[in-house]
Specification:
The complex is a heterodimer of chains A (211) and B (254). Chain A is of the alpha+beta class and 211 residues long. Chain A is built from six helices and twelve strands. Chain A has two domains: 110 residues, no CATH class; 83 residues, no CATH class. In chain A, the strands form five sheets. Chain A has a four-stranded antiparallel sheet with strand order 6-11-8-7, with no helix packed on it. In chain A, helix 2 crosses helix 6. With 254 residues, chain B is mainly alpha-helical. Chain B has two domains: 80 residues; 116 residues, no CATH class. Chain B has a three-stranded antiparallel sheet with strand order 4-1-5. Chain B has a two-stranded antiparallel sheet with strand order 2-3. The two termini of chain B are 20 Å apart. Classes of the chains: A alpha+beta (211), B mainly alpha (254).
Chain lengths: 211, 254
């Protein structure tokens, strides 16, 4: 029986690996991995499409993509997504990712935009809103077309637009907001890269120092 | 600084004295305060201070007036802050820009404050991250047709900024105007030149970080040493330098 014998004449790998590990201080690790994870998160958020209803974009995810930061930690690195101002309110991304129930803090009811006209706006952005109660609930409504006091001509937000939006805006009444005591939003984990993607990117970046 | 809290007190006092008879209704006051509260960041605070100083100045002018005709003129100006859609949109736009500038400043610090991160990622790539309906370098022509305006696109601006930077720490633009990119070391003067609108561009914001101009969808992303070496921007063992931070300018406003 022949037993293979391997003789190590010169071990260059072990010292090199040891040196690489010793160089990888917590600060070095964070500086190497943090920016890579930050870039991946920003690109992921930037690639998320516009709202599912096809309303005019409010650049919701762009606001958060601009606020991605990496923060060095004693045992690694944290990716933080700072709150952004959306429709006049400071909001975080956690509700969109993990879901939850929103309840009004300073008023009695929440106003939910239900029109491409009101999407991305708050009721105070619209003059002359009035309340309409129906069997389906309460709505803030605006007249579709009005007569200008100055010119006597018909004015309205939807003039000149075709298609369903135009028809809707030329209606007698525009239903802009639905009032609700609370809203429960389902979470969407796909808003952020997956844990596996973060780990794979971190490993790839950490290996960046090995030539 | 005049805060929103004492602003409402001041308005109430002037209304009680009959010096603001019908110029500012409670709803208009609430609208103003709401607009001002839309952003509470450091940059925006400075912007709000400017707006409020201007507002306060007009209020003081109004409070010392006795001529009803003159008073109506000043009140019309005051009403412009809250009752005029164009003015409200202007304030909103300014606040939106200041929010983006604050975000850009935060990212700029994130890219430059850690010596290890600068060493690992000594360069930045400047490329489109956010889409725009009408990007720079294009405009809408008759019947909605897209017309190219190459003199205003980012590659043109990049070349002009590089020429003004007077260093060799940047590379010529790669690819086309919308999908391509500009690459430079973090320490290059091209970033400040880009923000200063070198080449005669007057829509820039004066900062060495994005957004370099109004409504820009271009961002800077860290570029690794390995790629920077491959591109010939820096040597494998060459020390990397961070951007030169000017703390007085870092939160500059448009």
């Amino acid at each position: 029986m022949i037993v293979p014998v391997i003789k190590i004449v010169a071990d260059e790998a072990t010292p090199a690996m040891r040196e690489w590990v010793e160089q990888l201080t917590p600060e070095r690790f964070a500086g190497r991995v943090g920016p890579a994870l930050q870039t991946m998160t920003m690109e992921h958020l930037a690639a998320l499409g516009p709202n599912e209803k096809g309303y005019p974009s409010t650049r919701f995810y762009e606001k958060f993509a601009r606020n991605v930061r990496w923060i060095p930690m004693p045992n690694g690195v944290t990716i933080a997504i700072l709150p952004a101002i959306v429709s006049g309110r400071q909001v975080g991304l956690a509700l969109r990712v993990f879901g939850g129930t929103i309840v009004p803090q300073t008023v009695d009811m929440l106003s939910i935009p239900i029109s491409p006209v009101s999407y991305g706006h708050v009721p105070s952005d619209f003059p002359n809103l009035f309340l309409v109660r129906t069997v389906r609930g309460a709505y803030l409504v605006q007249r579709g077309e009005q007569v200008s006091e100055a010119t006597g001509r018909m004015i309205g937000a939807g003039r000149g637009q075709g298609g369903n939006i135009g028809r809707r805006l030329r209606a007698d009444l525009i239903f802009l907001f639905k009032l609700a005591p609370s809203v429960t939003q389902a979470g969407d984990r796909d808003v952020l890269p997956s844990d596996d993607e973060y780990i794979a990117k971190a490993i790839e970046a950490a290996k960046g120092g090995v030539n | 600084m005049l805060t929103t809290a004492n602003l409402s007190q001041l308005i109430a006092a002037l209304q009680k004295d009959g010096k603001l008879p019908a110029g500012l209704t409670p709803r208009q006051t609430a609208l103003l305060q709401k607009s001002l509260q839309k952003y509470s960041g450091e940059v925006s605070q400075r912007l709000l201070a400017k707006i409020l100083d201007d507002f306060k100045s007009k209020l003081e002018t109004a409070s010392s007036m006795t001529d009803p005709a003159q008073l109506r003129g000043v009140l019309a100006d005051l009403g412009g802050y809250v009752g005029n859609e164009d003015a409200t949109a202007g304030i909103k736009f300014a606040l939106k820009i200041s929010q983006e500038v604050a975000s850009g400043a935060g990212q700029f610090l994130n890219q430059n404050l850690s010596a290890e991160a600068v060493d690992e990622y000594p360069a930045l790539e400047f490329k489109r991250l956010f889409s725009r309906n009408v990007p720079r370098g294009e405009r809408i022509g008759p019947k909605g047709a897209i017309i190219e305006v190459p003199d205003e696109d980012w590659p043109t601006r990049w070349a002009a900024a590089g020429a003004a930077a007077e260093d060799s720490d940047w590379l010529p633009w790669e690819g086309d105007a919308q999908e391509g990119r500009g690459v430079a070391l973090k320490s290059s003067a091209i970033w400040q030149a880009l923000g200063d609108g070198e080449g005669g561009f007057d829509d820039t914001l004066g900062n060495p970080y994005p957004p370099f101009a109004f409504n820009s969808g271009f961002m800077t992303l860290d570029l690794s040493r390995r790629e920077a070496v491959k591109l010939g921007l820096i040597g494998a063992d060459e020390p990397a330098e961070p951007a030169k931070l000017n703390y007085e300018k870092i939160f500059s406003l448009p």
